[in-house]
Amino acid sequence: MAATSPESSLSSFSTTAYTPSTTAYTPSTTTQAISSSGFNFPTYTSFPPFYTLQPNLTTRTHQLELWSTLISSYCAYYRIFRLSLSSLPTDLFSNANIHRSLKPGDVRTVLDHMSKPENGPRIDWIPSTTRNEQSSSCYVYWKTPGEWADALHGWVDETGQKGTVLTVYELREGDAVRSKEWRDMDEGMLRKVLNVLVKRGKAQIFGQEENAGVKFF
Amino acid sequence: MFLRQLDLTTALRPSLYDDESLLFVQDGVGLYEGKFKIPNYQNGHAYLTSHRVCYVDNVEPRKYAVAVDLKEIERTEFYAGFLKSSAKITLFPKATRRPASAIRSPVPKYASPSDALVRSAAPSPRSTPAPARDVNATWVCPICGFSNPVPANFDPSTANQHTPLPPCQACGIKPPLAHMIKASIAAMSNRPIGASQQGEASPKHQSLTPDGYPAKESASLPSAEAPSNQCPRCTFQNHLSLTTCEICGASLQSAGISSFQALRPESPGPSLGGKSILDDETIETIKFSFRAGGEKTFLERLKTALVQRKWLLQSAPPVPRPGLSPAQSSFGPFSSGVENQTRSSTPQQRVVGIAGLERRGAELRQNNQVVIGSAFEDLEALMTSAKEVIAMAEQFANANGGGDTAEARSIISDSASALGLVTTKDMLGSGSASETLYITELSRNLAEFLTDDRRGVLRREGGIMSLVDLWAVFNRTRNGIELISPLDFEKAAIKWDDLRLPIRLRRFKSGLLVVQERSRTDEKTIASMLSWFREPQYVFPPVDADLLGQTFGRGVTAQQTAERFGWSVGVATEELEMAEETGAVCRDQCLDGIRFWENHFTHAFNEPKLKDAAEMMNELRI
Question: Are B179 and B188 in contact (CB under 8 A)?
Fold first, then answer.
């Protein structure tokens, strides 16, 4: 929970505990710094009204903004690429210390808010396989596909692999990407990232689903 | 002295004397002097009371309100109206002057050329109607030396040994009558002398100045005097805006008016002619023009009031009691001493000790029995002895204060207050306009009821109460007579805004109607709620276990809010939701209901941190 020191009364109320959460949002450096203690939840997660969707629209906007920041930083910390409504991380949407949790219906509202184009989008609903059914899982873009594409292309450029053909499996689980952020990325999401590169004219995809290959330019 | 300035209550109605009662109200009334309309007095309410005929303007009630004492009316004349001219009632003042008023008015009765000069030099729109009463009259208590104000309705010319005199405010001893009369005559003779001195000074000054600058000089004369808002009693130099002396508490009214003149030396000239019509000395007749009807009832009740002469009641001897000999009750008007009152009511042969006390008690009981018996014999008798019966009811209420239950006490005091003033439908005339008039009068009644400090209706409810509660409380005070229908009640409440009364009706989002003081705004309510929410954050020393409280303050339910502020739960819910709507608080819905917290979403988590802390300190200081 929030690491509010006992002597914090007024000034530390929003300063100390809040800072780690913002830095956690930009990965790699700080992830290691606090990895020992687990994800550091910001102060507002122990604010009881945080778990009730506010009827006042202005307040609700602020609340949803806080939620999307929380979800993004949480997923970035635990490297979660895909959320499914049926199996949500328990400590993300509830706080056992104050006995509050966000209702499942409200979770969808929060995710819907994040999926709007004007908010990033910071998640993307995965269309469900059966028709006329709400999708129940989504990709979480703690980095946007554009940013991922830049990172991927930058890595290819650095390692001098332009012109070679790499398989999707290699990009996800190969030895060369072991230390990279996008390792173990959800396959569907990786495809979206590659499509961005294709659109930019920097890559080309060959072959079928299982053993597709990518050639970078 | 025919037209007097009128004091108004908070509800902008004439404030009545102790024994005065309201007889009739009519709106859409204008005033005429002779054949001419009096400017600014053309659209208002006419109030007929047992002592006065009052005019209160609709647009500027505080500025344009005058009254005519019934006792100064010689006769009335009725004009029924013809084609476009509406019905009018003309009041003729009494021509004869009493000796006391001769002292009062040394100024010549008809305007002389010098008079006109004085007027043009120091025009005073406010002082045109004669001042209500001599506000500066004081009497010094012979026992303790405290100077008390002479009561407003004390008239030295009609006072006799039966006039009720107020006791000294400091020591509680009643003054001798002669003392009081001397004091009030002295006060009356003082004031016009001061005024006439000023009147003489101005033209003299004007003649002395070189030609070409008379107006400028005369304008600077009062302003040189004006900054000294000197107390007429203790000569302390008060600040200009004060109305009572800081040191001795004497009223600075006359001084205030003179400073008012100095502040506005250039009054528009042309309207002077119209205004000087209102001057007390030149007035010959006053006409009330009834543009919205109601003149017949008004005239009828006016005539009854003139016949009844209620204003004599206060100085009239009490109803002769069977036990007293006539010689006893007829004391000379000035032979009174301090014990005059007590001596007239005690029997001649003195009985001392316990026997005397018992005998007095028995006599008192017997006397009360006789009064009650005769009062209820028939209605006429009840009317004439109403005063005594009311006094007795009040006395019973006081006497029972110790022993009985609170409920019984409140019933008794209610029954006494029920005899007081309320507007009833039969006080108003019939006709199409009377309905709206009834509503406005009811509206003013309600405002008076709510602002009455003795009842403290609003205070008891935390400054806010629902309209339904008020309806119940108000109707209960009427004791089952002339109850108000909910429809009329709501209409009257809606009128508060139009009439600019100090009470306002507020509609919550859910449609709940509540009543609160006009000065009480949402901002104030929210500020007081937030400071309560923040209490745990600033507790010193901090409670270690209450980490949540230290961080976010306190979450409250509507129930707790209701208890804390003395509101009803419904009102508390509405107030909280109002605050939520403005974004000051936010809600937390959990299994045991909804709690409200300060809204940290918008304030705390998003803005730069240092500024945030500073802001919160600022908010606290509010």
Answer: no
